[in-house]
């Protein structure tokens, strides 16, 4: 806290470029209501969805002022009515801090429902905790919404991204065989270091050939897709019978993918779409449980790309937009 009753927070009151609309100022410290907790934030995670909200990609501002960011990690310092006092001083990672409300984790304190503050294992850093949330829950739903993946073959399109990396880590923890694609040849070794079984460089290797060779012609049972419009045709060719393509991202709000229905029907293909904020609650509960199990087992080790101070939040947003920093972008508070 910089002064009595006040906290530092980043916010914007209109949509636009990061360096034009983001401000860092002191505002009143919030207090939890019934069923809520207050978390003193140590690290706040930046996601592409935070950029899309700020720029208007996903629609007009739903609130006159927005403190951005869904993810973060810190310590519960106050609990509301009906929340056990035993949760005080608990280290937690948080998710969906700003979804459905105006104030997210880019502040020294944040209020959220108690279930959205998840106990962080003692041996896991706050930096890792702030890297979970959106990418880990998205990855989990893409992987497990259709059942167990043990011994299944998975292809991750975009293995060097935050969600792609989360898919690899969770899939390997669950006992799947995992192939991943990368655009930059320099990413190949880092993705292999996450225990991917096969990494395909898009610039020099043919995806279908490599997948068919590695699976003895059978194909993969699931593809987690970052760019369905660009990769749809090759995805279908890489699937086995009754395979699933699960996609979580679009490059524009109006993006359309022509679907050759007969090909899909003859192959019994399923197209699944994942929007993390609308994932059914029972899947979200399972995701949180599994993510913590993966952490406890020592199998979830995300790449931390760069940590910025709160005062440089505009630079952190630009780093996410430009995609020049590999790994998760965090804000230190």
Ordered list of secondary-structure elements with their pairings:
Layout: E1 6-11, H1 18-21, E2 23-28, E3 36-46, H2 48-55, E4 71-79, E5 91-94, E6 109-113, E7 117-119, H3 126-129, H4 133-144, E8 153-157, H5 162-173, E9 177-182, H6 188-192, E10 198-201, H7 207-214, E11 220-225, H8 228-238, E12 239-247, H9 261-267, E13 270-273, H10 281-296, E14 304-309, H11 313-322, E15 328-332
Parallel strand pairs: 8-9, 8-11, 9-10, 11-12, 12-13, 14-15
Antiparallel strand pairs: 1-2, 3-4, 3-6, 3-15, 4-5, 5-7
Key terms for this structure?
29% helix, Quinone Oxidoreductase, Chain A, domain 1, six-stranded parallel beta sheet, seven-stranded mixed beta sheet, 2 domains, 27% strand, alpha/beta, globular, 333 residues, single chain
Characterization of the model:
This protein is α/β, with parallel strands linked by helices and 333 residues long. The chain folds into 2 domains: 6-132 and 302-332, Quinone Oxidoreductase, Chain A, domain 1 (Alpha-Beta Complex), CATH 3.90.180; 135-277, Quinone Oxidoreductase, Chain A, domain 1, CATH 3.90.180.10. 29% of the residues lie in helices and 27% in strands. It is built from 11 helices and 15 strands. The protein has helices at 18-21, 48-55, 126-129, 133-144, 162-173, 188-192, 207-214, 228-238, 261-267, 281-296, 313-322; strands spanning 6-11, 23-28, 36-46, 71-79, 91-94, 109-113, 117-119, 153-157, 177-182, 198-201, 220-225, 239-247, 270-273, 304-309, 328-332. Strands 3, 4, 5, 6, 7, 14 and 15 form a 7-stranded mixed sheet that branches. Strands 10-9-8-11-12-13 form a 6-stranded parallel sheet, with helices on both faces. The chain has a two-stranded antiparallel sheet with strand order 1-2. Helix 5 links the parallel strand 8 and strand 9 (177-182). Helix 4 (133-144) crosses helix 5, helix 4 packs across helix 10 (281-296) and helix 7 (207-214) packs parallel to helix 8 (228-238). It is globular and about 65 Å long. The N and C termini lie close together (10 Å). 44% of the residues are buried. The model has no long low-confidence stretch (mean pLDDT 95).
């Amino acid at each position: 806290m910089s002064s009595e009753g006040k906290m530092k927070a980043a916010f914007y009151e209109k949509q636009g470029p990061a360096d034009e609309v983001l401000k860092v100022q002191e505002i009143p410290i919030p207090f939890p209501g019934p069923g809520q907790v207050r978390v003193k934030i140590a690290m706040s995670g930046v996601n592409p969805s935070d950029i899309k909200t700020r720029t208007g990609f996903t629609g007009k501002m739903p609130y006159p002022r927005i403190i951005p960011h869904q993810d973060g990690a810190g310590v519960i310092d106050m609990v509301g009515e009906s929340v056990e006092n035993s949760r005080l001083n608990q280290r937690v990672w948080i998710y969906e801090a700003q979804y459905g409300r105006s104030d997210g984790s880019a502040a020294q304190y944040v209020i959220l429902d108690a279930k959205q503050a998840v106990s962080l294992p003692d041996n896991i850093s706050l930096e890792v905790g702030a890297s979970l949330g959106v990418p880990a829950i998205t990855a989990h739903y893409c992987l497990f919404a259709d059942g167990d993946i043990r011994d299944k073959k998975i292809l991750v399109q975009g293995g060097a991204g935050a969600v792609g990396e989360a898919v690899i880590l969770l899939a390997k923890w669950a006992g799947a065989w995992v192939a991943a694609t990368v655009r930059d040849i320099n990413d190949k070794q880092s993705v292999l270091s996450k225990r991917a079984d096969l990494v395909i460089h898009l610039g020099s290797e043919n995806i279908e050939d490599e997948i068919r060779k590695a699976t003895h012609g059978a194909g993969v049972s699931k593809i987690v897709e970052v760019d369905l419009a660009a990769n749809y045709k090759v995805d279908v060719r890489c699937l086995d019978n009754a395979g699933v393509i699960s996609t979580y991202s679009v490059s524009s709000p109006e993006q359309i993918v022509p679907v050759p229905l007969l090909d899909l029907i003859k192959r019994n293909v399923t197209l699944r779409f994942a929007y993390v904020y609308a994932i059914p609650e029972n899947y979200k509960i399972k995701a949180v449980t599994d993510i913590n199990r993966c952490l406890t087992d020592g199998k979830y080790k995300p790449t931390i790309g760069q940590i910025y101070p709160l005062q440089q939040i505009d630079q952190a947003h630009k780093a996410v937009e430009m995609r020049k920093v590999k790994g998760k972008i965090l804000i230190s508070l």
